Amino acid sequence: MAFTYHDLKFHARNALKAVGLENAGLEAREILCVASGKTKEELLRDQDLYVNDDFIKRVGDMVDRRREGEPALGAVSRFLDAAFPDHFLHARYPNMGILSEIGWYD
Q1: How many domains does the chain have?
Q2: Considering the domain boundaries, does residue 90 fall inside one?
Q3: CA-based R_g, the chain, Å
Q4: How confident is the model at residue 104 (pLDDT cuts 50, 70, 90)?
Q5: What global pTM score does this model have?
Q6: Secondary structure (3-state) at 75
Q7: What SS3 state is found at 74?
Q8: What does the DSSP 8-state code read for residue 86?
Q9: Sequence-distant contacts of 62-65: CB under 8 A, at least 24 apart
């Protein structure tokens, strides 16, 4: 079945909402933005474009990690670490390793 960005956001939101996340719509949008490399404006503009199976799997993996209780920053950061080793979180938060050691960031 073919999915658009809009369809995928809808399914991601419902999956996050099903586990009781209050801001499921916002978190779903942020996950799609990070996974696609688009801003929220670009995502809105492209909402009717179809996505490929690799992208669906990437978003699904991020949603699954969030559903399992991983903090949103963790789910997003793990993807960015793999895709973009020098991404903005390392520049803005160089001591993230320390946060991990004390249990604030996983």
Answers
A1: 1
A2: no
A3: 14
A4: very low
A5: 0.68
A6: helix
A7: helix
A8: T
A9: 62/31, 62/34, 62/35, 63/12, 63/15, 63/16, 63/28, 63/31
For residue 26, give its domain range.
Answer: 3-76
Helices 24-36, 72-83: crossing angle, 10 deg rounding: 10
Q: For residue 14, is it within any domain?
A: yes
Q: Is residue 100 part of a domain?
A: no
Residue 11 belongs to a domain with what CATH number? 1.10.8.10
20-60 residue pLDDT tens: 988 899 889 989 988 898 888 999 999 999 999 899 999 99
Task: Output the pLDDT for position 39.
Answer: 87
- Taking only the tens place, the pLDDT of each residue in 62-74 is 899 888 887 765 5
- For residue 66, give the 3-state DSSP assignment: helix
Query: Is 77:89 a contact under the CB 8 Å cutoff?
Result: yes
Looking at the domain assignment, is residue 88 inside a domain? no
Q: CA torsion sign, 29 to 35 to 39 to 42?
A: negative
Q: Model confidence at 83, in pLDDT bands (50, 70, 90)?
A: low
